[in-house]
Design brief:
This protein has 242 residues and is of the alpha+beta class. Helices cover 15% and strands 45% of the residues. A hairpin with a 5-residue loop joins strand 8 and strand 9 (89-94). Helix 1 (199-213) packs antiparallel against helix 2 (219-240). The longest helix has 22 residues, at 219-240. The chain is globular and about 55 Å long.
Length: 242
């Protein structure tokens, strides 16, 4: 798949043949992302909201590209959107100072709606902003200017800030690894990739596990939860220098 800065989406076969040309009529594009499983394309641009296009197939062969849905909520240009590695969720960040996280593991062809997992506001400090959603859907990381802010998906609260993550220049990308352990960012100006431990994400998982432990359950299931809690608490003590 290729996207132009105008309104064109072009889908190719592995042999380079054009399968489909789509005019999104979105005035202009700011980003276009292909989901890791190749099923969806998320397009953002001048029009607030993120448009999802779905590639349909039959017997492993390409059939068509159709509009799946539009994820609403942003009131201005969307800077960036990004899928999780499983292709079942995505996040977006907008010029209006807001971010959103969505569960898209639904049947759009049966008129099901995507589920809003969380949203909030962030501090815009650069020409544009970038976002990443943790695969376990606990946190959203927003890179804007030279800094990174990390938010809880569940509450929308700001969990942590990494000021001047790239003092040499504005960020141009941010990702969270598939194991939820690290947050990585890059900048074209300082030519650096920085990798940070996902401590806020670990704390969110810990809080969730402790809440699960309060609920009724078997002795064996509670033992599993207690062991996971202990492992995370031990790891966090290392980060806290205890």
């Amino acid at each position: 798949m290729a996207a132009t800065a105008a309104t064109d989406l072009i889908y190719y076969s592995l042999n380079g043949d054009v399968l489909k040309h789509v005019d999104t009529k979105m005035v202009y594009h700011t980003c276009a992302r292909l989901s890791p499983d190749g099923r969806y394309t998320a397009i953002a641009g001048f029009v607030g909201g993120v448009r999802l296009m779905e590639v349909t197939s039959s017997g492993g062969s390409f059939v068509d590209v159709v509009k799946a849905t539009v994820l609403p909520g942003h009131n201005s240009e969307v800077y960036d959107c990004e899928f999780t590695p499983c292709s079942k969720a995505l996040c977006s960040v907008s010029k209006d100072g807001t971010w959103q996280a969505w569960d898209i593991d639904v049947e759009f062809n049966r008129n099901a709606d995507a589920v809003l997992l969380g949203s909030g506001t962030y501090t815009e400090s650069g020409d544009r902003s970038f976002c990443a959603l943790a695969p376990n859907k606990t946190i959203v990381a927003i890179g804007s200017g030279t800094s990174i802010e990390i938010f809880s998906v569940a509450s929308g609260a700001l969990l942590d800030t990494i000021p001047n993550a790239h003092p040499g220049g504005d960020l141009n990308a941010i990702v969270i690894d598939s194991a939820n352990k690290f947050i990585a960012s890059s900048s074209g100006l300082d030519r650096m990739v920085c990798v940070f431990h996902n401590v806020p994400g670990h704390r969110e998982v810990l809080a969730s596990l402790k809440n699960q432990l309060l609920k009724p359950g078997s002795v064996s299931s509670k033992k599993i939860l207690q062991d996971r809690i202990q492992d995370i608490e031990t790891m966090l003590k290392d980060f806290d220098g205890e």
